[in-house]
Design brief:
about 350 residues, alpha+beta, Aminopeptidase, Immunoglobulin-like, 2 domains, 6-stranded mixed β-sheet, 10 helices, 18 strands, about 30% helix, binds zinc ion
């Protein structure tokens, strides 16, 4: 509001000065990028031989191969846009240190590094996509802005979205080497974990025909939106695309190390004739969104596969079907935030014989 009044008073003095001031006040960085040539570095994660260099290896998928395939397809997609130079940190199956990848990005004057990865978890229980960004100021903001855009694109492909996260190492720096190395050299960087190679939910998507190409189009579209690119070749035009900037953190943004503060359940109804138990669960985490839940009807000995939790709600109800022949089932539920930290409810005994 104050700005407007200042501009009005200046208008009466000098038109040229108004133009100068308007330019200063309306200089939204996302707008200025479109016409300026940009350099994008795509970093296919892993490469070469030896355990760590292979990345995740599950269900016939090899992470180091998928990352190179996707990076190559992404380069071709991005090159359809005007004013963009696209470079890869590796184009063959070779070992490359995280530092040399970051140094390469610095040497070529990269505007952004997109490190391409696929995921896996120790217990093979998680699924979905996630983006890791730096915890520091501008780098956090850029990575989070981009992460939100690409998450919207991945969501359209049916991938569950875990969100954008940060992780700090023991020395107070960004935990992940590629992000740390890039930020130390003044280059924004995100790690893009597209999907889990060790979970059926994601694997079934990865096995659909042309899925890597679909990911490449999603990634390219997100980058084009982020940088307000347009393509003379295809007619795609994101010069008018706008987004709300993530708030820059004041200090370091530490990762969430604890499970949701609340996780409680109530049995709302039971029907022995159909084997159904209707459960209401309330869970909340003030630090990070709750994204999965699971339930047990044998007192916590076994749990169902992780279900999607509607992160816009603290309370949700769902049906548990117990097998015929179950007597006095004991229901326990778990909730997980997007840092995969879990909380468990107090067990609730349901009295009755479920025979149907
Ligand atoms: Zn990886």
């Amino acid at each position: 509001m104050k700005t407007g009044r200042r501009i009005l008073s200046v208008l009466m003095v000098s038109v040229s000065m108004l133009v100068m001031i308007l330019t200063a006040f309306t200089a939204v960085p996302v707008k200025a990028k479109a016409a300026t040539p940009i350099t994008i570095v795509i970093d296919p994660g892993h490469g070469g031989v030896g355990d760590r260099n292979l990345g995740a290896q599950y269900n016939g998928f090899s992470e180091k191969e998928l990352t190179l395939q996707l990076a190559t397809a992404l380069k071709a997609e991005l090159e359809k846009y005007d004013n963009v130079t696209v470079l890869l940190t590796r184009t063959t199956d070779t070992i490359l240190s995280l530092d040399s990848r970051a140094q390469y990005a610095k040497n070529v004057g990269a505007d952004f590094v997109f490190s391409i990865h696929f995921n896996a978890s120790n217990e093979h229980e998680f699924y979905g996509s996630e983006v890791w960004t730096s915890t520091f100021g501008n780098y956090y903001q850029k990575g989070t802005d981009f992460g939100r855009i690409v998450s919207g694109e991945w969501n359209k492909l049916g991938l569950y979205q875990k969100g954008v996260k940060t992780k700090i190492g023991s020395k107070g720096q960004d935990y992940y080497g590629i992000i740390r190395g890039c930020v130390e050299r003044g280059v924004p960087c995100v790690i893009m974990e597209h999907a889990y190679l060790d979970h059926d939910y994601d694997v079934s998507l990865l096995r659909t025909s042309g899925f890597i190409n679909k990911l490449a189009v999603s990634d390219a579209t997100a980058i084009a939106k982020y940088f307000n690119l347009k393509s003379t070749a295809t007619g795609a035009d994101y010069t008018g695309f706008t987004y709300t900037h993530a708030k820059k953190p004041y200090g370091r943004l530490y990762q969430d190390e604890t499970g949701p503060e609340t996780c409680s359940i109530k049995v709302l109804a039971q029907d022995a004739a159909s084997g159904n138990i209707l459960v209401e669960m309330t869970t909340h985490d003030s630090q990070s969104p709750v994204i999965y839940f699971s339930y047990s009807y044998d007192g916590g000995r076994t749990f169902c596969t992780l279900q999607m939790w509607d992160r816009t709600k603290d309370t949700q109800s769902f049906n548990i079907k117990v097998p015929s022949g179950t007597n006095n089932p004991v229901v326990v539920c778990r909730s997980y935030n997007n840092y995969e930290k879990m909380s468990e409810s107090t067990p609730v005994q349901v009295t009755g014989s479920f025979n149907y």
